[in-house]
Design brief:
The structure is a single chain. This protein is an alpha/beta fold. It has 14 helices and 15 strands. Strands 1, 2, 3, 6, 7, 8, 13 and 14 form an eight-stranded mixed beta sheet that branches. A four-stranded antiparallel beta sheet has the order 10-11-9-12. Strands 4-5-15 form a three-stranded antiparallel beta sheet. A hairpin with a 3-residue loop joins strand 1 and strand 2. Helix 3 crosses helix 14 and helix 7 crosses helix 8. Bound molecules: zinc ion. Zinc ion binds next to loops. Zinc ion (ZN) binds next to loops.
Length: about 425
């Protein structure tokens, strides 16, 4: 990958400094002439999820073929997130070719383990930057995109700029059994106890609430929506319960208004005629901005209400990071560039439901924005972490033009 980048972007590799971090991650610096200006940070990741997933045969073009056919570039990473790596480098290469010298310093940070939470990549790069005392005005990373025909009732394309992402917590639940012989089982087994605990958790979710960024997003989209939706929003003080009930009805919008509860692993027993001593389940929570990890654990304890079910955190990636400023320079620059490259698009702040490397840089960055400049329909999204990931050539070209225009503005003021 490093050799390919060196070959493909000769100007970048002569004009920018490059550091290799943890063997595979890359940190580029394009030095600005005005040291008084806080640098900006462009984040992307070079690693991808596996291509086969037991479904390699279903790909139209092999997941690592990189085939260019039928107007598309095919393969793992085409959208998530090599398009951003290559597109950003294409843009800098182009701007260098135009003789551009930045006033403001730009860093490009390309991790190699984002899909594994960035411990060796983004975290190490952050430590390096922190040791040098570098603070960023804002950052731009993957996250949300331009959506076509995916927002009910809105015919125009909608560009969502992610201003935060959900937090992440997994809890291990362990139910101890009373033991005994399977032919004379106790009235309550460990499996039964655990099943009840999970049923209660699913029936009593964390409370829903409409707050930023979901509320800001809906406020910005409402003027484009059909009359009844507009009416509900304009009178939110009156219709809040109705609005929440509507949003709770589909998984996509439900995830925007509450901390979600998802049982993912369930085990107990080793033989069909032996009572298991313990049964275990893992439940994954994605935390709404504002919900604390302690709140979730307290909620789980109260709902399960069974001292014989032990509750332990096992995967704590943390609470949702602070909201990026929607009035800030970064948001305005991204918005202006969207208007230029994706005309007639409605722009709104959004909540990223998955995780990104931005959280790993958060301590150094004033405002972290999450937007990949591609325009997607529902069919394109199925390729991300799925089969037939691809990007259209038109989309890729537009992505490069976005980065050119965005960087031109971002580093010159
Ligand atoms: Zn990604």
């Amino acid at each position: 990958m490093q050799a390919l980048l060196e070959r493909s972007f000769p100007r970048v590799h002569s004009a920018l400094s490059r550091e290799i971090v943890s063997g595979d991650s890359l940190l580029y610096r394009w030095q600005g002439t005005d040291p008084a200006l806080k640098p900006i940070l462009l984040i992307a990741h070079m690693d991808v999820v596996p291509g086969d997933m037991g479904t390699a045969t279903n790909w139209t073009h092999g997941p690592f073929s990189g085939d260019i056919a039928d107007g598309f570039i095919w393969g793992r990473g085409a959208l998530d997130d090599k398009s951003a790596v290559m597109g950003a480098l294409e843009a800098v290469e182009y701007l260098l070719g135009q003789g551009m010298t930045p006033r403001r310093t730009l860093y490009l940070a390309f991790g190699h383990d984002e899909e594994l939470s960035g411990e060796q990549g983004a975290v190490k790069i952050r430590e390096l930057l922190a040791a040098r005392g570098i603070q960023f005005d804002f950052s731009l990373d993957e996250g949300l995109t331009v959506l076509e025909g995916m927002v009910p009732g809105i015919s125009a394309p909608v560009a969502l700029i992610g201003v935060t992402e959900k937090g992440y917590l997994s809890l291990l639940l362990t139910a101890e059994g009373q033991g005994g012989h399977v032919s004379m089982p106790p009235l309550e087994t460990s499996v039964g106890r655990l099943a009840k605990a999970l049923t209660r958790l699913e029936a009593h979710q964390m409370p829903a609430s409409l707050q930023p960024p979901a509320s800001t997003m809906l406020d910005d989209l409402a003027p484009r929506a059909p009359f009844w939706t507009r009416f509900l929003f304009a009178n939110r003080w009156l219709f809040a319960p109705l609005l929440l009930a509507r949003l709770e009805a589909s998984p996509e919008t439900n995830a925007l208004i509450r901390t979600t509860t998802a049982p993912t692993l369930f085990s107990g027993g080793i033989k069909e005629n032996v009572l298991p001593g313990t049964a275990k389940a893992t439940v994954n929570f994605r935390l709404l901005p504002g919900d604390r990890i302690d709140d979730v654990i307290a909620h789980v304890r109260k709902v399960i209400d069974d001292p014989l079910v032990r509750i332990e955190p096992i995967g704590v990636r943390g609470e949702a990071p602070p909201l990026a400023d929607v009035e800030g320079r970064g948001f305005a620059l991204i918005g202006q560039t969207i208007a230029q490259i994706f005309p007639d698009t409605v722009v709104a702040p959004g909540l990223v439901l998955a995780g990104t490397d931005s959280v790993n840089y958060a301590p150094l960055v004033q405002s972290s924005y999450r937007f990949l400049p591609v325009s997607l329909a529902a069919t394109d999204l199925s390729g991300v972490h799925g089969v037939d990931e691809r990007i259209s050539i038109a989309n890729y070209e537009r992505l490069i033009r976005f980065y050119i225009e965005f960087l031109r503005k971002a580093v010159s003021e």
